[in-house]
């Protein structure tokens, strides 16, 4: 939750985000193996966590043939593409090189066709920048829009992963062979979720069925189908203004934009969180089977691809945020920002639904 957004407003927008993403927790209800993993983890954790172990909410939609696939950008845009009356255009191979300003107002965008090299300008009453947590602040910096908090408070999940081989009590639950059809997900490939609990279990855990071991096995190993699961733990990294994206006024990247450098480090409390995450991995293993490959490992910073905070929202223009709760950039009319970069809080969950909810909130406000 974002403390300065009223809870009822955020709940409304979050529900809209779930609808847009076609979120479900029922996709793998028919998988006995997935249900068995969920039950075993529930027996281990449900007695002391606030929310029970459950199927993870996933953005999944079946196609006409019943094949499951993750909902991506095309799902969000398909209604626009299907309605010629909508004023919508998608321009491929096009780079936004700068925001066009007139005084304290953004009035358009300077674009470059990356195939022909043509540069041109598009005027707009309102510009919404939603690149990613790196390139949204990069475009603002290149445009001379540089609030104090731009690129600061960059945050990522502490990300520790392990691989577990299920013990033989789960064998009878496996189907025996994959039932995935071409281009779809295996109906046995459930994702079990242990939700974050700030007081008792401050991690978000995903346990995913794998179709093969991710590492080399002993030559005598004889795994049964579905016997390997990947265990992902996300933990909260403390916010720090020194964790930041720095931009160069001299060097450029491959697109001619200001080169960036990431400044990021873990403090003592972060290292303590990592230590506790490793113990949590062992608890998950105890409920399911045995580690494959030596146990859990901490991934490199940024490896989750859930980079947040670089254009963070805030309650007031106090120098510690880039925009308000509707994504409007402080002190600049006609400009809003979106994407994972606006999330201002440390989190231990996948950010997509939160980001879409905040985009729904921002878009509705602009309209």
UniProtKB/TrEMBL annotation:
Keywords: FAD, Flavoprotein, Oxidoreductase. Residues 93-158 form the Glucose-methanol-choline oxidoreductase N-terminal domain. The keyword Oxidoreductase applies. Its cofactor is FAD. The keyword Nucleotidyltransferase does not apply. Residues 249-359 form the Glucose-methanol-choline oxidoreductase C-terminal domain. InterPro entries: FAD/NAD-bd_sf, GMC_OxRdtase_N, GMC_OxRtase_C, P2Ox-like. Belongs to the GMC oxidoreductase family. This is GMC family oxidoreductase N-terminal domain-containing protein.
């Amino acid at each position: 939750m974002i403390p300065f957004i009223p809870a009822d407003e955020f709940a409304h927008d979050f529900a809209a985000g779930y609808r847009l993403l076609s979120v479900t927790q029922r996709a793998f209800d028919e998988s006995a193996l997935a249900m068995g993993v969920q039950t075993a983890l529930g027996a281990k954790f449900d007695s002391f966590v606030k929310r029970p172990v459950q199927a993870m909410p996933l953005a999944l939609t079946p196609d006409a043939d019943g094949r499951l696939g993750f909902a991506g950008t095309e799902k969000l845009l398909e209604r626009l593409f299907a309605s010629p009356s909508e004023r919508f255009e998608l321009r491929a191979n096009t780079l936004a090189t700068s925001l066009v300003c007139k005084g304290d107002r953004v009035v358009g965008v300077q674009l470059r066709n990356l195939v022909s090299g043509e540069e041109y300008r598009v005027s707009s009453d309102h510009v919404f920048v939603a690149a990613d947590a790196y390139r949204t602040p990069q475009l603002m910096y290149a445009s001379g829009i540089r609030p104090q908090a731009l690129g600061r408070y960059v945050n990522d999940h502490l990300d520790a992963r392990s691989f577990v081989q299920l013990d033989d009590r789960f064998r009878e639950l496996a189907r025996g062979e994959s039932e995935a059809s071409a281009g779809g997900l295996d109906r046995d490939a459930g994702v079990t979720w242990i939700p974050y609990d700030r007081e008792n279990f401050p991690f978000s855990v995903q346990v995913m069925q794998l179709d093969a071991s991710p590492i080399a096995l002993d030559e005598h190993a004889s795994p049964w189908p579905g016997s390997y699961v990947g265990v992902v733990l996300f933990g909260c990294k403390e916010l720090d203004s020194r964790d930041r994206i720095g931009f160069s006024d001299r060097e450029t990247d491959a697109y001619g934009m200001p080169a960036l450098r990431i400044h990021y480090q873990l403090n003592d409390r972060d290292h303590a969180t990592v230590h506790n995450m490793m113990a949590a991995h062992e608890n998950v293993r105890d409920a399911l089977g045995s580690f494959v490959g030596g146990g859990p490992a901490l991934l490199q910073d940024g490896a989750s691809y859930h980079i947040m905070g670089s254009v963070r929202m805030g309650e007031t223009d106090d120098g510690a945020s880039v925009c308000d709760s509707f994504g409007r950039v402080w002190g600049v009319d006609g400009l809003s920002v979106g994407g994972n970069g606006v999330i201002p809080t440390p989190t231990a969950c996948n950010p997509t639904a939160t980001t879409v909810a905040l985009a729904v909130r921002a878009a509705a406000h602009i309209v």
